[in-house]
What we know:
Blueprint lengths: L1 E5 L4 H12 L3 E6 L14 E4 L6 H9 L3 E4 L6 H6 L1 H21 L4 E7 L23 H20 L2 E7 L1 E3 L11 H10 L5 E4 L8 E2 L1 E3 H10 L7 E5 L5 E2 H11 L7 E4 L13 H6 L8 H15 L1
Parallel strand pairs: 1-2, 1-4, 2-3, 4-5, 5-6, 6-11, 7-10, 8-13
Antiparallel strand pairs: 9-12
Helix pairs in contact: 1-7, 2-4, 4-5, 6-8, 6-10, 8-10
Amino acid sequence: xxxxxxxxxxxxxxxxxxxxxxxxxxxxxxxxxxxxxxxxxxxxxxxxxxxxxxxxxxxxxxxxxxxxxxxxxxxxxxxxxxxxxxxxxxxxxxxxxxxxxxxxxxxxxxxxxxxxxxxxxxxxxxxxxxxxxxxxxxxxxxxxxxxxxxxxxxxxxxxxxxxxxxxxxxxxxxxxxxxxxxxxxxxxxxxxxxxxxxxxxxxxxxxxxxxxxxxxxxxxxxxxxxxxxxxxxxxxxxxxxxxxxxxxxxxxxxxxxxxxxxxxxxxxxxxxxxxxxxxxxxxxxxxxxxxxxxxxxxxxxxxxxxxxxx
Length: 310
């Protein structure tokens, strides 16, 4: 089938594009290269350098007529969303609406929408958190991901558009860029390889940092492949249901690199949650999905990537 992927010059979606191509699908990539990189683009895919908020997107949909749209393009920084909520809404809401309008006009069969299990639930009372928990977002990024899910529901109700929502935990792996909370693994790896002590963000009274659910990118890719034909009209958590503190993550990386550097510590940033942990039982039922990689295995492969990249 022909699949249009937004944001596939970036970290996660570039891996998804590779997997779709390897499965024999035709892939069209739309990316404005604001945070993605040309070297992540698979040469077997057809690439359009375009912004999802621009009218150029309409022309691409008209000419390509994809059967499935996988929407990864987004403003992904939680702190930036708090500082510049209009920018976040412009990309994460208005950009999505333009995509959905085109999906209806071109009779797209299904949309796979990337949401956030790591942010959308807020400081959840249910822990680990299931998809039945009513989101209580504490950042503009999380609010707009929740809004995006509501738009999908509306477009299905109004126009019959099929969709699957994948709510990612904190994804890490090769090609991850070292900026923002989402890039904490790459930040730690690159800093230690360079012989520098990275900064670790903590709340008062929480010396080991925040609790997160770290899921390896290859496991996330598997969920995107399964979602092509499964989990219609469902929102599904994609995580490990294993809690890891920021210091625990750092010590795992430090140990694998045989480093003796200790991190410096700084205050938590705007929008940072104290803890986030998601339940993936629904993914097992509706996708037949479970994580295959442990934190240690994923970090080992990530370290090798950064060493090889030089």
